[in-house]
Amino acid sequence: MPHPRSVLFNAYWAAWTALFLAPLLVFAASGSPARPIRAATRLWARGILFGLRHLVGLTYVEEGRERIPREPCLIVANHQSAWETLAFLILVPDVAIVAKRELITIPVVGWFLRRSPMIIIDRANGTQALRTMIDESRAAVAAGRSVLIFPEGTRGTIGDPVQFKRGVELLYGRLGLRVLPVAVNSGLYWPSGSRTRAGTVVVSYLDALAPGLPAADFLRGTEGAIDRELDRWRPADLGLQMP
C-alpha cells in the first residue's frame, strides 16, 4: 500500500507542475527567452524540494561546498535518484547538466528542461551522442557555465560500486577543466521505483582533480573518490533501501 506521504507528495508534484503550463504558453509565444525560462525552471525545482521537505520530511545538507572551483569545471556525480537531477539546478545555478533524452518527454517539465542549461543526448545513438555532448559542453564552458554529468548512465543503489560508462573520459580530455567529484546518497531515501522517505540527503563535494591526467588516472581518481565516500553509508544503512 502506498505511503500517505508519498501519495500526498505525488499529488503536490502534479499540481505544482501544472501551474507552469500558463508560463510555458507565455514563454512559447514570446520566442522562448532563455533567462526567464531558466529562472522558472529553478523555481519549479525549488518548489519540488520544498514539497519534499514539508510533506515527506526529506531534506539535504552539503559538505565541502568550499571545494567547488570558482571557474567553470566538470562536475562528476554518482546517480541514485531523481533527486539530484533537479536539486543540482539549485545547488549549482546555471550549471549545464548532461541528461538523457527521456527527460524531456515529461509533460510541461520537459519543455522547460530542454530550454534550460541542459545538454540532452540520445544514448541510443552512441557516436552522435558523444559529439553532441562534447560540442554543447564546450559551448556551455565558453558561456561561463560548469558542466555536470552522471557518468554511470543510469540510477544505481547505495550498494552498487561506482562504474562510469564510456565517454566521460573523452569529455574530460576535450574540455581540459578541473574535475569536481560529488557523492550523493539520495538512493537511501528516494530509490528508483520506490516511495520517498524522510531523511537527509548528503551532497559531498570532494577534492578536485587537475586537468590533463591520463584517462586511466582520471577514471581511477573520480570513481575511487566517490566510491570511498559512499562507503560512509555502506553497509549499515543498506536496510533503509528496503520498501
Question: How does this model look, in words?
Answer:
With 243 residues, this protein is of the alpha/beta class. The protein has a single domain (58-232), classed as Glycerol-3-phosphate (1)-acyltransferase, CATH 3.40.1130. 43% of the residues lie in helices and 14% in strands. It contains eight helices and seven strands; from the N terminus they run H-H-H-E-E-H-E-H-E-H-E-H-E-E-H. The chain has helices at 4-18, 21-29, 34-56, 82-91, 109-114, 126-142, 168-175, 215-230; strands spanning 58-63, 74-77, 96-100, 118-121, 147-149, 179-184, 199-205. Strands 1-7-6-2-5-3-4 form a seven-stranded mixed sheet, sandwiched between helices. Mean pLDDT is 90; it is low at 237-243.
* C-alpha Rg (nearest Å): 18 Å
CATH architecture: 3-Layer(aba) Sandwich
Overall shape: globular
Whole-number mean pLDDT = 90
Estimated structural class: alpha/beta
Helical content band: 40-55%
Number of strands: 7
The fraction of residues in strands falls at 5-15%
When the domains are counted, the total is 1
Top-tier CATH class? Alpha Beta
Ranges with pLDDT <50 over ≥5 residues?
237-243
Q: Strands of the largest sheet, in order across it?
A: 1-7-6-2-5-3-4
Q: Count of helical segments?
A: 8
Distance between the termini: 11 Å
Q: CATH-wise, what's the superfamily?
A: Glycerol-3-phosphate (1)-acyltransferase
Which H/E pattern describes the elements? HHHEEHEHEHEHEEH
CATH topology: Glycerol-3-phosphate (1)-acyltransferase
Main β sheet profile: 7 strands, mixed
Pfam families: Acyltransferase (PF01553)
GO molecular function: 1-acylglycerol-3-phosphate O-acyltransferase activity
Protein name: 1-acyl-sn-glycerol-3-phosphate acyltransferase
Keywords: Acyltransferase, Membrane, Transferase, Transmembrane, Transmembrane helix
